[in-house]
Amino acid sequence: QVQLVQSGAEEKKPGSSLKVSCKASGGAFSSYTISWVRQAPGQGLEWMGRILPMLGMTDYAHKFQGRVTITADKSSSTAYMELRGLTSDDTAVYYCAKGGWLGTPFDPWGQGTLVTVSS
Amino acid sequence: QSVLTQPPSASGTPGQRVSISCSGSSSNIGSGTVNWYQQLPETAPKLLIYSYNQRPSGVPDRFSGSQSGTSASLAITGLQSEDEADYYCAAWDDSLNIYVFGTGTKVTVL
């Protein structure tokens, strides 16, 4: 049974960067996809991108291309999502989830990481 | 960017049947499967339905999904108080090359 545990809440200044981690346990980390989804306060879910650690392949939503980088460390079964050039619009809960390649469902999800961007 | 359209709210009394629609296009629902997620207050979303009408282990059989053309729907039969949550549909969009979510539906148990 795969379990995903994310890093803790962060407060960031506009213009800075954030890096959220997502540590997986159970299952073969390299063989499954990790996606990142965010949810702004009171808003819906928004897919940001995904990585297939086995091949190092990544895909990003156009909205975030150039600003987001998703990586994976197979030795520690940890995926990372880095977002640069933060604005207040990036204030959200960021989730990692297993799945998302070829339409596969997101299951399970990490607990979420609240990121607040404020001056 | 929500490409899939859902009604903002739905409600019912305990024991009733509630249905939530999800409208998309030929590049998303029309070309693949729809997954449904339940998000209880202040918690991460949870997979509810996948691959047309499959339920992960532990999901009660009062939840069911259907899909036809460019639309999908989630039905909750025998509504219970613990079903009060936000529900999202989701699918891969071949044209946008992104995973798209529905606008979300808040289910209230009266």
Task: Kindly describe this structure.
The complex is a heterodimer of chains A (119) and B (110). With 119 residues, chain A is mostly beta strands. Chain A contains no helices and ten strands. Chain A has strands spanning 3-6, 10-12, 18-25, 34-39, 45-52, 57-60, 68-73, 78-83, 92-98, 113-117. A six-stranded mixed beta sheet of chain A has the order 2-10-9-4-5-6, with no helix packed on it. In chain A, strands 1-3-8-7 form a four-stranded antiparallel beta sheet, with no helix packed on it. In chain A, β7 (68-73) and β8 form a beta hairpin. The termini of chain A are far apart. Chain B is 0% helix and 45% strand. Chain B contains no helices and nine strands. Chain B has strands at 9-12, 18-23, 35-39, 46-49, 63-68, 71-76, 85-93, 98-101, 105-109. Classes of the chains: A mainly beta (119), B mainly beta (110). At the A-B interface, β5 of A face β7 and β8 of B.
Biggest β-sheet strands, sense, barrel of chain B? 6 strands, mixed
Strand percentage of chain A lies at over 45%
Radius of gyration of chain A: 13 Å
Number of helices of chain A: 0
Assembly state (oligomeric) = heterodimer
Most extensive chain-chain interface: A-B, 24 and 26 residues
Radius of gyration of chain B from the CA trace?
A: 13 Å
- Secondary structure: helix percent of chain B: under 10%
Mean pLDDT of chain B comes to 95
Q: Which H/E pattern describes the elements of chain B?
A: EEEEEEEEE
Count of helical stretches of chain B = 0
Major beta sheet of chain A, specifics? Answer: 6 strands, mixed
